[in-house]
């Protein structure tokens, strides 16, 4: 599946996420960074806000955990 807003590159965001072993929150940030301003009819401010929201959630989990480790790779049930 190649969404129009990701066709600027032959490398898809999920390929980068997998190759780099990104956690859930960082992976979603990558996805929204890649499509920022490229999705037809979508306000780029919304994508920027999503990037910030995922960054804030990651920061919260890192602070709660006392640092980053593999337990952050998947979201908890919250």
Summarize the structure.
This protein is mostly helical.
Task: Provide a descriptive summary of the structure in words.
Helices cover 54% and strands 0% of the residues. The mean pLDDT is 79. The chain contains 3 helices and no strands. The relative contact order is 0.16. With 78 residues, the chain is mainly alpha-helical.
**N-to-C span:** 30 Å
| Averaged pLDDT | 79
In percent terms, what proportion of residues is strand? under 5%
Class of secondary structure makeup:
mainly alpha
Largest beta-sheet characterization: none
Q: Could you name the ranges where pLDDT drops below 50 across 5 or more consecutive residues?
A: none
Write the layout of secondary structure elements.
Elements: H1 13-20, H2 24-35, H3 44-65
Helix pairs in contact: 1-2, 2-3
